[in-house]
Amino acid sequence: MSNDFEDQVRRALRPVDPSDGFAGRVMLRVAESSKSRAWLATRHWMTVVTVALAASAIFAIGLTLQWREKQDQAGIEARRQLLEALRVTGAKLDLAYQVVNGDSHSTAQDPGS
What we know:
Order of helices and strands: HH
Structural class: mainly alpha
Radius of gyration: 47 Å
Distance between the termini: 147 Å
Number of strands: 0
Strand content: under 5%
Number of helices: 2
């Protein structure tokens, strides 16, 4: 049994001459493999560029939102200051009105003071 097994192994592992065109088929596969690797490298770079563009877009959106937030805060502060200025101006105008109207009545009644 041992000799049969060894003979079967020898027959299975015996050298075999390649068929006609074997070298051409091997070279064709090597060329296709290098094209495939080039395509994979191109695809890798396309992925890298796509990810970089997406990251840039997200960064730009973040900066824009931050800028708009600052502009909104500046607008709110300007509005607050304007309302305060209008309130002060209104109060001063009321005071001036009272002084003008109060002075005209007091000077007409008491010209010697």
